[in-house]
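Milestone M4 deliverable, item 7.
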Amino acid sequence: MKTVSDQPLLFSNEIAGNIIPADPDAFRHHRDEQGYGAVLSNVDPPRHTALRRVYSLFFSGPRIAKLDGLCQSLTDQILDELGARDEFDFVMDVAAHLPARLICRLLGVPPADWPFITRYANSFASFADPALQLGATPADTFRIAKDKTFAYVEQLVYTRRSAPEDDLASMAATAEVDGAPLEQREAAWIAWSILAAGFETSRNIMSGGLLALLEHPDQSRMLRADPGLIHTAVDEMVRWTCPATGLLRVAMAATVLGNQPIAAGDWVVMFLDSGNHDEAVFATPDHFDIVRRPNPYISFGHGVHNCIGRMLALLEAKVMIRTIIQRFEIISIAGPLEWSASTIAKGVRRMPVRVQWRQGNSGPAA
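Output delivered:
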């Protein structure tokens, strides 16, 4: 996988995108309407290099570190809204809300529009999920969800061009590449891609990470006894859950991979979960180990196309799991799990839990 990722000019993102599409022929038509050449994950170097510098303004380490307080505030708000309930669906009642609210807040989406954005962004990310269909087929759902969210974000960016505020939509609206301002549609694609990439991956890390703790009580006890392990614990959750399924590339020339001939134009898919369980890299890949070091997982990809929002996803998971441990004395599974159906991401779709709140931690915080 690293061999493919380290050769972006041989294995292209720009030809067909980086995800397994709902419609295998979609990339051949209306390419500008699908963000080819504009969305970071659908661009090859050298244009990719220039665009990534724009995105890095949003996702620098110091900027993400400053979001810890906001992330904590939103997490507390979400848990407060549960009131004193002792049973709820952790995925849809808790985990789904944090990335949705945080991304909407950062983009500058008014709170009244958060439910609209959340609905269509979730359908885009899980376009094959029967519960999230917007049309007759998954391909219809993918297109409808993309069009709805993009139209909204494009208007938001247009508004920010003449009246910028302190948000990511304004940063996209006023960004420059190689000294030249981005065109309106290019700026909109940047803002939209931040939105589209920020929902399901983070949700699945939090839900899958909590499930892993519940399925491995020895690891849960270890983390409760030493909350300082949260950083290595979240890294292991990311490796273990691997929220993205696979990354697509198209070979630009004939080559060979692992003794397998690859012709020019062939599709190559890297299944990240397989890499995260590579026995040549991980001594005990089938064990969930919250103190695993080193932990060179590839859940966020590798090379020039590694996920630029990975630090935000890690922050969200760290804050959520940390807070869950602080506010709940006991957590257990309260019913059957349901799993998402998606060629983009994988994870728990429904996870009913039963909790015992720590004394003084149920309902709105004082």
